[in-house]
Amino acid sequence: DTEVTQTPKHLVMGMTNKKSLKCEQHMGHRAMYWYKQKAKKPPELMFVYSYEKLSINESVPSRFSPECPNSSLLNLHLHALQPEDSALYLCASSQSPQNYNSPLHFGNGTRLTVT
Amino acid sequence: GNSVTQMEGPVTLSEEAFLTINCTYTATGYPSLFWYVQYPGEGLQLLLKATKADDKGSNKGFEATYRKETTSFHLEKGSVQVSDSAVYFCAPYSGGSNYKLTFGKGTLLTVNP
User: For a disulfide at B33, which of B9, B18, B49, B73, Cβ 3.0-4.6 Å?
Assistant: First the structure.
C-alpha cells in the first residue's frame, strides 16, 4: 500500500469544468510534488512545495493551480484544460527537497481525461 | 542540471533469465541514485537506492552499484519472474538548490513464463 494517497483515481472533465486533484501524506514529509506523466514517458515535474511554500514551478500553464493548505495536503486545481492535458498526475512527497538522500514517495496517481 | 541515459526497451525475457538495465548519468555535485519501478496502472515505487560511491542498493533480488568513476548505476537481477514485468526508471537526485529528481526515459521489461 502506498503511503501517499491521491483522489480521485480517475477523472473525466470537459474543457469548461473546474475540478481539483487531492493528495495526502502522513509521513511528516515537508516537501510535496506534482508530476505529470504521459503514456510511455517518464514523469515530468510540475511543482514543488517546500515547507508549504511553492518553491518550483516548471513553467506550468496557469490553468493548473497548486495549493498546499498544510504540510500533509496538496491540491491541484484544474480549470479550462485542453485535451492534451490528459495524463496521469502523480503526487509525491519527501522528507525535504534539500535532503538528497531522501527518496520521493509516490501516490498511485489520478488518471485525467479531458474531453 | 542532471541528465540520465537509460537503456531503452522494450526488454523481453523468459522467466529465470538474467536481467541488466544500463544507466549512466551526469549530475551536479554528488548525487544519490535511485531506481524506481512502475507496475501497470500504478504510480512509481522506490526499488532501491545508493547514496555514495561503491554503495550497493538491493531489494527484491535486484541490485545496483554506485560507480562514480563511470557515472553508472546499472540494475541487475539474477533470475527474473513474470511479476517483475514493469517499467524501470533510473533517477539521480542532487538535492540542495537543484532538488529535481531527473528520470531516465524508462525501460519496459516483459517477462514471459
Answer: B73
Question: What is the identity of the amino acid at B96?
Answer: G
Residue A108: per-residue pLDDT = 94
Residue A86, Cβ neighbours under 10 Å: how many?
17
Which one has a higher pLDDT value, B78 or B3?
A: B78
Q: Which amino acid would we find at residue A54?
A: L
Contacts of B49 in chain A (CB under 8 A): 103
Q: In this complex, which of A56, A100, A107 lies closest to B96 when CB atoms are compared?
A: A100
Q: What is d(CA B79, CA B16) in angstroms, rounded to the nearest whole number?
A: 4
- DSSP string of B33-101, one letter each residue: EEEEEE-TTS-EEEEEEE-STT-EEEETTEEEE-BTTTTB--EEESS--GGG-EEEEEEEE--GGG--P
The CA radius of gyration of chain B, in Å to the nearest whole number, is: 14
Could you give the C-alpha distances from A75 to B16, B43, B82, in angstroms and in order?
Answer: 43, 17, 36
Asked if A43 and B103 come within 8 Å (Cβ–Cβ), the reply is yes
DSSP B52: S
Please write the tens of the pLDDT for every residue from B72-86.
999 999 999 999 999
Q: What is the DSSP letter of B101?
A: P
The CA distance from B67 to A55, in Å, is 31
CB count within 10 Å of CB B53 equals 11
Q: How far apart are alpha carbons A86 and A84 in whole angstroms?
A: 5
End-to-end CA distance of chain B: 41
